[in-house]
Amino acid sequence: MTAHAGVLQGRDLNSDGTFDAYYDTTLDITWLADANYAGSKMTWNDARTWASSLNIYGYTGWRLPTMRDTGATGTESCNKIYNGTFCGYNVDTVGTDGTIYSELASMFYDTLGNLAIYDTNGKEQDGWGLKNTGPFTNLQADAYWFGLIYTPDGDNSWDFNFRDGFQYAHNQSELKYAWAVRSGDITPVPIPATAWLFGSGLIGLLGALRFKR
Fold first, then answer.
1. What is the pLDDT of residue 153?
2. Which of 36, 86, 108, 167 could form a disulfide with 138 if both were Cys (CB 3.0 to 4.6 A apart)?
3. Which stretches of 112-193 are DSSP H helices?
């Protein structure tokens, strides 16, 4: 398994010398640099509306992060487990074939190298939680909405908790944070020397990429 040095590349969207977004070379999406750009928690419907209506220096097409239900049928009830699949702790992030299973979990585990409160055997582990926020500002140790409805119950939607690494579904009326992303890269050519952690001594902070079993 490989740590992904330089997975985030800064993007200066208004040419003011600061990075407004980061391109994720593993997921092929662009994250807003401010992980709480909205400023407050929102219901799921409000979060989706907010993200889709964003216009950041002329760049539109923003959305909430997404994930995939990796259950055999895609509609089965979610079981809280500790190792792999689509629900619980230490969930699948990116498959061996490059399939993306969870954009938020990939950020938490793979890119930032954080640990869930429980290891894959269900035991609490040292150093768990949001210890590394990378180059982002206002990344909350709390739950963030995915843009995906929980199939068995249309009143619930998926979320990922950056406090303890828990991926689950909750009622859409609950208030959670929203982090806007955009498919693909905003600019075709990376700005020189903007790859975060590329070749630095901080590579050890990165988590090993979890492959789908």
1. 85
2. 36
3. none
CB distance 79 to 179 below 8 Å: no
The three-point CA angle 77-163-185 to 5° equals 85
For residue 3, with 0-12 CB atoms within 10 Å meaning exposed, 13-18 middle and 19 or more buried, which class applies?
middle
By the 10 Å C-beta count (0-12 exposed, 13-18 middle, 19+ buried), 154 is classed as exposed
pLDDT averaged over the chain?
Answer: 86
| φ and ψ of 39, to 5 deg | 90, -10
Q: What pLDDT, on a 0 to 100 scale, did the predictor assign at position 152?
A: 82
Q: Does pLDDT of 208 surpass 60?
A: no
3-class secondary structure, 29? strand
CA neighbours closer than 13 Å in the CB half-sphere of residue 57: 12
129, 115 Cβ separation under 8 angstroms: yes
Alpha helices, H only, 103-194: 103-105
Alpha carbons within 13 A on the beta-carbon side of 183: 5
Predicted model pTM: 0.85
DSSP, collapsed to helix, strand or coil, labels residue 205 as helix
Amino acid at 67: M
Average pLDDT over residues 171-177: 98
**pLDDT of 76-113, one tens digit each?**
556 678 988 889 999 999 988 899 999 999 999 999 99
